[in-house]
Amino acid sequence: MFDPTVFDNLKVVMEGGLYDLERQGRLQIVGRQDLLDLATMSRTFSLTFQLTEDDESQATVALSSSLTDFAVELARLRLVEPSPPGCKLQIRYQFENWTGAASRSEYIAGLLRQWWTDEIAVEHLVQSVYRDVDTEHQMQSRYMIVLTFDRKIDEDNMADMQPLLESALASLQELTGYIKP
Fold first, then answer.
1. Chain-centroid distance, C-alpha 103
2. Three-class DSSP category at 31
3. What letter does residue 85 receive in the DSSP assignment?
4. Torsion angle (degrees, nearest 10) of CA 51, 15, 38, 3
5. Half-sphere exposure of 176 (CA within 13 A, CB side)
6. To 5 degrees, how large is the angle CA 115–CA 91–CA 143?
7. Is the pLDDT of residue 80 over 80?
8. Of 63, 127, 60, 67, which Cα lies nearest the Cα of 97?
9. Please, are residues 137 and 129 in contact by the beta-carbon 8 Å criterion?
10. CB atoms within 10 A of CB 49
């Protein structure tokens, strides 16, 4: 009989939690990926959502697990490494066509640390795309914030998943209100 891994169990809880929030009309899911990287034998599952009233801001919640995590869990091995087996968690916020947010990145990082404490690494990415379409020149910008949690999560963190998803939604709403011109 198939025994689901920590990754599978967390994936089901995360997916169910976000679909529940969508059913309540609080967000709209716009993307879903369930990837297996055959080169590294790792898995990543992510769901992307946006606010129901704004299609220019999105958040993606992603779980990932490596071959080492799966091997340790399935073989019930004990490793002498600093982090036990489990899943890495990442939240990405993306804002389309918004300028000036990058200049306030220190303040934005402070806002995010109020939501997520100091157990995160915060990365800010700014992308500008210049398009020359039928003699019309267009400049589009994208601002992305990537939060990577310092520790892995496992089945002991199942009860934390719904509050985490609620916080991802609430922080997207707060960031949208702050960043949107």
1. 23
2. strand
3. S
4. 170
5. 19
6. 95
7. no
8. 127
9. no
10. 24
How many angstroms separate the CA atoms of 6 and 76, rounded? 12
- The C-alpha R_g of the chain, in whole angstroms, comes to 18
pLDDT in tens, 138-174: 777 788 999 999 889 988 999 999 999 999 999 999 9
Determine the residue type at 90: Q
pLDDT digits (tens, 9 = 90+) for 122-133: 888 888 777 766
Beta carbons of 44 and 62 less than 8 angstroms apart: yes
Please, are residues 141 and 99 in contact by the beta-carbon 8 Å criterion?
Answer: yes
Residue keyed to tokens 């490596």: 66
pLDDT band at 83 (very low <50, low <70, confident <90, very high): low
The three-state secondary structure class of 14 is helix
Positive or negative torsion for Cα 175, 179, 18, 85? negative
Contact 93, 144 (CB under 8 A): yes
| Tokens representing residue 169 in the block | 């939604």
Q: Name the residue ranges covered by the structural domains of the chain.
A: 6-179
Task: Output the six-digit token pair for 95.
Answer: 């804002």
What SS3 class is residue 86?
A: coil
